[in-house]
Structures are given as structure tokens and as C-alpha cells.
Design goal:
The protein has 2 helices and 8 strands; from the N terminus they run ββββββββαα. It has about 120 residues and is an alpha+beta fold. A 4-stranded antiparallel sheet has the order 3-4-5-6, with no helix packed on it. Belongs to the CDPF1 family.
């Protein structure tokens, strides 16, 4: 046991759907150290570990506006249509989304199943 420096454990973002997890540095609409960036939604944000540029950041995910689940921004897990929706809510309320969104989702599913078989 040689823990000389005690740092608070990093806050962890975990996607409720795919299990993706990553520490995040900020949650909100205006990440620190960014010039005039205001996000469309409150997001879990982390500094881009691959960039020395302080203003670079990655959006990990956000909370579903319906069920409040934390979901990553992966297209399999969430959809942004004026608000963030997790895929479970998208599927539940599919008939309330515009045709364009439904068509895109249907296309994506076809592509996914075609890739598997
Ligand atoms: Zn996910
Ligand atoms: Zn949801």
C-alpha cells in the first residue's frame, strides 16, 4: 500500500445500453476551456486524450430525455432528434418520430443484419 497521493476517483460515465464506460470531466452544455461552444444538450464530456489542444473534447454521451438513462452517442444506443433519446425509447415511441427518422432507422437495421449474415 503506497498511495501517497489521494485523488478523488474520476467520475465515470457508463452507457446503460452497451456498457461503454469512460471517465468524464464535465457534464453540461458548455465545456470548460472552450471558446464559444454551447452544446445542444447537456452532455458527458471528456478532454480529448489524443489531442494536446485544450479545446478539443469528446462527447461521451448524454441522458435520455424520456427515461433518464445514460446513453453513449453511438448510433446503436441513442438518437438525437431535438433531444436525446435512448434506442429503447426510440423503439417504444417510434410512431411519434417523423417518417424520415423511421426510414433511416429501418435502413440502418437492414444494413446491420446484412452485415451479419
Ligand atoms: Zn452505448
Ligand atoms: Zn430512454
Amino acid at each position: 500500500m503506497s498511495e501517497s497521493t489521494i485523488e478523488p476517483p474520476p467520475k465515470l460515465f457508463v452507457c446503460d445500453l452497451c456498457g461503454l464506460n469512460s471517465p468524464f470531466t464535465y457534464f453540461g452544455q458548455k465545456p470548460p476551456n472552450t471558446r464559444a461552444i454551447v452544446l445542444l444538450e447537456e452532455c458527458f464530456v471528456t478532454k480529448d486524450p489524443f489531442s494536446p489542444d485544450k479545446e478539443k473534447f469528446l462527447i461521451l454521451g448524454s441522458a435520455c430525455s424520456l427515461c433518464d438513462k445514460c446513453v453513449c452517442v453511438g448510433t446503436d444506443c441513442s438518437l438525437f432528434y431535438t433531444k436525446r433519446f435512448c434506442m429503447q425509447c426510440v423503439n417504444t415511441h417510434l410512431d411519434q418520430f417523423p417518417k424520415q427518422i423511421r426510414t433511416e432507422l429501418a435502413k440502418k437495421r437492414q444494413n446491420a443484419s446484412a452485415a451479419v449474415s
